[in-house]
Write a structure and sequence with these properties.
Belongs to the wax synthase family. The chain is an all-alpha fold and 376 residues long. The chain is 63% helix and 2% strand.
């Protein structure tokens, strides 16, 4: 690569602003938690609990970010997206409260319940003492090492992606559209989609690990968000159920799948969960692209992420019905099987990552990372 390149360090103000928004949301989550514990957990299955949950708590939480964004004039899309954390915690954990699907120990006391709401990440709870497990020096070292690795890999992948303008190979696929053409299955599109998937993974890993790092600093052990999903998954169900973004997986498990399972079959409950995942992301998109009554600089086609997650539900359903046919994959190296698994989602993965490219989200996240860019 010829030319002059410059190294850009992360901007401290980016992380300071994120921290301020985090404290603001945490305080709000604690207030909601106390209210839900008193009026929903303690009155579970009553008509008033459902009325308060679906009629007051969830609607008020989902509508809360917009006036806050407008009041603080927040423009950075990463900061705006972070404002969607509080509504999702409150909404899904309120559903847990109504349907008695919260993790063990969190409802043992008001204090346990309030601390449960302080973090999107799930704490490790001691089943004997009913309290949060402490983070040992070994635990903390592993957490810090993983965060630093993901932080530097995110900067490296971002530098590569920006240098090639997020497109290693030329294609006719418009990333911000559905683009239902055979071009989606072209090698060029799949290569580009794979690069964006790796970039999104490292950036999401940094974001979710930073979100729980404060709890680790306070001495509490949290559950790991990602388990190297792109390179170690041996099936779509393992990718989504045990590897990819376990923070959101646990939120959906307790707030969507388990409540649905009380009334529906396993397959229908999976469908409800993937639908909820898609709508969760589409809601987050409305927060990220909210422009305070001004004309949008970027117009996302909403419900693309819902379509993406429903496609992955179809893949899991196919896997379940045909799993007897895939025994030969046990003899293949994990990296080969994992690549094939990821390839099943890549044709449509731009329904998720495409908006981030077209709206300059990755570049705005870059404020919090180091990256290298060509300047001449």
């Amino acid at each position: 690569m010829e030319g002059t390149f410059a190294l850009y360090p992360p901007k401290l103000i980016f992380w300071v602003q994120l921290l301020v928004l985090f404290f603001l949301q945490t305080f709000t989550q604690m207030l909601y938690a106390a209210f839900i514990y008193k009026f929903i957990v303690k009155q579970r299955r009553s008509s008033s609990a459902y009325l308060l949950g679906f009629g007051l708590v969830i609607p008020s939480a989902l509508s809360a970010p917009y006036p806050i964004l407008e009041y603080f004039l927040i423009q950075n899309k990463t900061l705006k997206l972070s404002m969607g954390t509080m509504p999702l915690i409150v909404a899904f954990r309120c559903i847990e409260a109504m349907y008695d699907t919260s993790p063990h120990s969190v409802e043992e006391s008001l204090w346990n319940y309030v601390t449960y709401y302080t973090s999107l990440s799930h704490f490790e709870w001691d089943p004997k003492t009913k309290t949060r497990r402490r983070c040992t020096a070994l635990d903390f070292g592993a957490i810090l090492w993983r965060l630093l690795c993901h932080f530097h890999l995110a900067g490296l992948m971002l530098s590569l992606a920006m240098h090639f303008n997020y497109q290693l190979l030329p294609t006719k696929v418009n990333l911000h559209e559905y683009n239902l053409t055979w071009e989606l299955f072209s090698p060029a599109h799949l290569v580009n989609a794979y690069m964006l998937a790796i970039l999104a993974f490292f950036m999401l890993a940094v974001g979710f690990e930073m979100a729980s790092f404060g709890d680790n600093l306070k001495g509490f052990l949290t559950k790991q968000p990602f388990y190297n999903p792109l390179f170690t998954s041996r099936s779509p169900s393992e990718f989504w159920g045990r590897k990819w973004n376990m923070t959101i997986h646990r939120l959906l498990k307790h707030g969507a799948y388990m409540p649905a399972r009380q009334y529906l079959s396993m397959h229908l409950s999976y469908f409800v969960t993937f639908l909820a995942s898609g709508l969760l992301h589409d809601y987050s998109w409305t927060v990220m692209y909210y422009q305070y009554g001004q004309p949008l600089a970027y117009h996302p086609a909403f419900f693309k992420t819902t379509a993406f997650f429903l496609w992955n539900y179809i893949l899991m359903a196919i896997e379940h019905e045909t799993q007897h046919m895939w025994g030969f994959t046990k003899r293949l190296p994990t990296i080969v099987v994992s690549t094939l698994v990821v390839l099943t989602a890549l044709p449509f993965s731009h329904w998720y990552t495409g908006d981030w490219v077209a709206s300059n989200y990755f570049a705005e996240f870059a404020m919090g990372l180091w990256f290298i860019r060509k300047v001449a």
